[in-house]
Design brief:
Layout (H helix, E strand, L loop, with lengths): L18 H21 L4 H8 L3 H17 L1 H11 L1 H19 L5 H30 L4 H9 L1 H32 L2 H7 L20 H6 L1 H25 L12 H13 L5 H4 L1 H7 L4 H26 L8 H18 L5 H23 L1 H7 L4 H30 L3 H70 L1
């Protein structure tokens, strides 16, 4: 049950060329997908006062939007498999724009839940998944670097939108700001236009297995080639049948995949504390008496650090020392996030919040850059589309409940420190879990790899012996034939 980490795409990914234009499109698309819900937190305090709602109720706005983005993963996966990434991303941009424009006319908080949360969140789902999927079709060797660069779009967009939203609010109010944001998010349609499908008319990477030793290569070439061709034909038939029937929506066989289950269990716990610290960062600062622009500037500091750490993380993850054991790197990033949240309430004043924003930006950027790369590393690029769709729909539960539960802690205790303590625990526990479980997973994978090599060697030896025995049999027949005729 070893994870399929090898590429089974049936073609050679170009690892460059137009792929870098695709990365730029994914940069924009992923940037709006992740940064848009966070940037809207600048309006939370004013919307909360306008509709007379609690911290928990206002937190549902970003929560519903993020949960809809995750819940729409399987639908997005189905559409990507059917139509490709380009049209799905363009439709997603139109949906987010429509949701924001409709929300500007909202009269109740429920109206904002439906327009910003549901319609906008589904539009972001149509932006996120296709961008992640198409990178795996263009890159293999440089995939961690490409993913790191694409994921950098989130902090870049957040760094831009956080102060821009504060300016728009001061100039036009939250209704006018939502109208303008509805036009800005149409840039996702431009990003989708860049996502040209990869040219698969290249040399196939599938090759027949080789036997060790010159003698084996000489004596068993024909038999091993025939066996390899048969195995590859059967494998391709099985994959095409499974992709044609099951992969249209999800791949249930992933629930038998050891690495996928480790990733899924840890992420379900982790996402209860993943988004809430960002959602409440600006409101937390305003709660301490800090002015609106300084509070919004904390998000810019966070995004600026995040902006530089994501490509750096992709570069580090692509090195020969980290790439073979990248799951440990991911485990460290999760644990580091938890430690940051536990320390946050102990840092006093605005300077303390700036320090927290810097270290949290480092932690969040590392985790975000690795979040989908490690999933692709576990299941392989050929199953990634189905895997990410399945993961996102399951994770939408904790994504939906995380910020409101955190807001409820603020409502109950009247302060934010217990919320940050809870988020720290929700991040630190799965980080430790990942360290332990991936240690055993890597150990098991090494054992399975050795067994596979031994089996291939034994198969090659048997093929060689069979070929030699057949040759020996024919040689005996040839030598015995004249002797029989002589008698």
């Amino acid at each position: 049950m070893a994870p399929a980490t090898a590429t089974k795409l049936g073609y050679t990914p170009p690892d460059g060329g137009w792929g870098w234009a695709v990365v730029f499109g994914a940069f924009i698309s992923i940037g709006f997908s992740y940064a848009f819900p966070k940037s809207l937190t600048v309006y939370f305090k004013e919307i909360q006062e306008y509709f007379f709602v609690s911290y928990s109720e206002i937190a549902w706005l970003s929560s519903v939007m993020l949960a809809s983005m995750y819940a729409g993963g399987p639908v997005s996966s189905l559409l990507v498999n059917r139509f490709g990434s380009r049209p799905v991303v363009m439709v997603g941009g139109l949906m987010v724009s429509t949701g924001m424009i409709l929300a500007s006319f909202g009269r109740t908080i429920v109206h904002l839940y439906l327009c910003v949360g549901v319609i906008g969140g589904l539009g972001l789902a149509f932006n996120l998944q296709p961008a992640l999927t198409i990178i795996g079709t263009y890159f293999q060797v440089k995939r961690p670097l490409a993913n790191g660069l694409a994921m950098t779009g989130s902090p870049v967009v957040l760094f831009t939108l956080a102060p821009l939203n504060q300016f728009l609010f001061d100039s036009f109010g939250w209704r006018g700001s939502f109208l303008i944001l509805g036009s800005i998010v149409l840039n996702c349609c431009v990003a989708g236009a860049l996502m040209r499908p990869v040219n698969k008319n290249a040399q196939s990477k599938s090759e027949p297995p080789e036997c060790n030793g010159a003698a084996a290569a000489e004596t068993a070439t024909s038999d091993t080639s025939a066996q390899s061709a048969n195995l590859l034909t059967k494998e391709n038939q099985e994959e095409s049948r499974s992709q044609g029937c099951v992969h249209k929506i999800i791949d249930p066989t992933l629930f038998k995949h050891r690495g996928f289950l480790i990733y899924l269990i840890g992420n379900v716990v982790m996402f209860f504390g993943f988004f809430a610290p960002v959602v409440f960062l600006a409101p937390y600062a305003k709660h301490q008496g800090i002015d609106e622009y300084s509070a919004a500037f904390l998000l810019s500091i966070f995004a600026l650090v995040d902006m530089f750490i994501r490509p750096a993380t992709g570069f580090i993850g692509n090195t020969k020392w980290i790439r073979p054991r990248i799951q440990y790197f991911f485990s460290f990033a999760v644990s580091y996030n938890g430690v940051c949240h536990l320390i946050c309430p102990l840092l006093p004043g605005y300077v303390g919040l700036v320090v927290y924003a810097v270290f949290f930006g480092l932690a969040f950027g590392m985790l975000s850059a690795l979040l989908f790369e490690v999933l692709m590393d576990l299941v392989g690029a050929h199953r990634f589309s189905s895997a990410v769709g399945l993961v996102t729909i399951i994770e939408c539960g904790p994504v939906l409940l995380g910020p409101p539960l955190s807001g409820a802690l603020v409502d109950i205790f009247g302060e934010y420190k217990y919320m940050y303590y809870a988020c720290g625990v929700f991040m630190l526990v799965p980080g430790i879990f990942f360290f332990i479980m991936h240690y055993f997973n890597y150990k098991k994978l090494d054992e399975e790899r050795r067994q596979t090599v031994a089996l291939e060697m034994r198969t090659c030896d048997e093929a060689v012996q069979l070929k030699m025995s057949q040759d020996e049999k024919w040689s005996h027949l040839e030598t015995d034939k004249p002797y029989g005729q002589a008698n």
